[in-house]
Amino acid sequence: MACVAGCSITNGTSLQVNWREVNCHNKLRHPSLPVFHFSLACNHCEEAPCMKNCPALAYSRDEKTGAIIHHAEACIGCKYCTWACPYDAPKLNKSTKIVEKCNFCVDRISEGKRPACVEACPVGALEFGQKEITEEDYITPGFVNIGIKPSIQLIPLREEHTTPAIENLDAVEISSEKLESYLPKKESKVSLDKEWTLVLFTLAVAGLASWQAAHLFGKAEMSLIPFAIVSVLAIALTSLHIGKKLRMWRFILNLKGSWLSREIFSFSTFLGLTGLQIITENQMIGYVAMAFGIFSLISVDMVYKFLKRRDGLVLHSGMVTLTAVLLFAWLQEVSILVELIILAKGSLYVWRKIALKKIEIRYFPILSIVRIICLLLPYILLDLEMILPISLIIIFAGEIIDRSEFYHESDVITPENELRILNYKT
């Protein structure tokens, strides 16, 4: 841990936020499992996902060293870069409510010195220099390689250090279930207790977009005050998720690379144009607003492309695009579209639960039954009069369950997560 200490002392980081971490394959040092470590900080990737996806343009690349630099004064604390980076390099400082990360010790390098972590390592496990990196340099258990070209070479154990093998024949076997229970509880970057505001916000986006489209086609009443109230609540919900609320305007600065920027921009434009549509009753403005509404739905789903789902499936029944289409079909009273979306959502939901059960992950069977009922009951009651408001309430209740499970069943890719998976396979 000398590299961690050296980094912290040189850069003045707090004890809660270490820019460099030592990743352990066998945190318990259990004799039945192999033990090895590798030290990681920011890898200053050629195609750095933190810089590409930051909505506030809080990252830049130093031309001289190639280092990815984070600018605290531009950060809004949305934590999106912490989802995008598979190496867990950007870290949220809860005291300052903004992200910080390794800066490659640019000041030291510029003076001809080595980075603090390299200088502090007593065993020569870290070195610094220029070298052409190939795909073979990333073949190390637990290291994530998703094609973003990290500027790091990982040198495996030399052959003479792998033999002779020392086996502990008296070691007690340990199951993967027990191993997980012994390990320190992992704090997930994506969890329902953190993301409940996003559950409500994403459903608000789906509801407003479907409401506006149904109003445009003459099947739903929409007045300015109710629409404005729901819109303000939606904006307030998303603002609760960021650390620096006075910098919210920076959300839309990276339309070129960030789906989060596109989401906020398209949704804000949709709200403004819809308000103008209601006031002027202009159909053309309504169609433009609907186009931005559709794009905002697509953007919401694309924002979560970095998440790693426990079920391993590509599609999710709680996708906001599907939810918006379902709500629109109900408001438009298009029975065939309602049937198709119910079938699609129900099939995806059951498929996901079966996948979770197979890999022995908790899948909440009672809650699942409630969700299926909320999907089918409105359709069963379709012929009753005055059922539309009740149906929409039931549908929203089911969508809240489904969307909440989406966050509960998702996580981001990190070296620690990859090593835990490797423990199960070992």
Textual characterization of the structure:
- InterPro entries: 4Fe4S_Fe-S-bd (IPR017896), 4Fe4S_Fe_S_CS (IPR017900), ET_IronSulfur_Cluster-Binding (IPR050954).
- The chain is mainly α and 426 residues long.
- It has two domains: 2-169, Alpha-Beta Plaits; 192-411, Up-down Bundle (Formate dehydrogenase/DMSO reductase fold).
- 48% of the residues lie in helices and 6% in strands.
- It has 15 helices and eight strands.
- The strands form four sheets. Strands 1-2 form a two-stranded antiparallel sheet. The chain has a two-stranded antiparallel ribbon with strand order 3-4.
- Helix 9 (259-280) packs antiparallel against helix 10 (283-303).
User: Which strand order does the major sheet show?
Assistant: 1-2
How many alpha or pi helices?
15
Mean pLDDT: 88
CATH superfamily of the largest domain: Formate dehydrogenase/DMSO reductase domain
How would you describe the shape?
globular
Unreliable runs? none
State the distance separating the first and last CA atoms. 25 Å
Can you write the helix and strand succession as a string? Answer: HEEHEEHEEHHHHHHHEHHHHEH
Q: By helix and strand content, what is the structural category?
A: mainly alpha
> Which strand-content bin applies to the residues?
5-15%
Helix content: 40-55%
Largest sheet: 2 strands, antiparallel
Please name the CATH topology of the largest domain.
Answer: Formate dehydrogenase/DMSO reductase fold
Q: What is the level 1 CATH name of the largest domain?
A: Mainly Alpha
**Total tally of structural domains:** 2
Cα gyration radius (Å): 25 Å
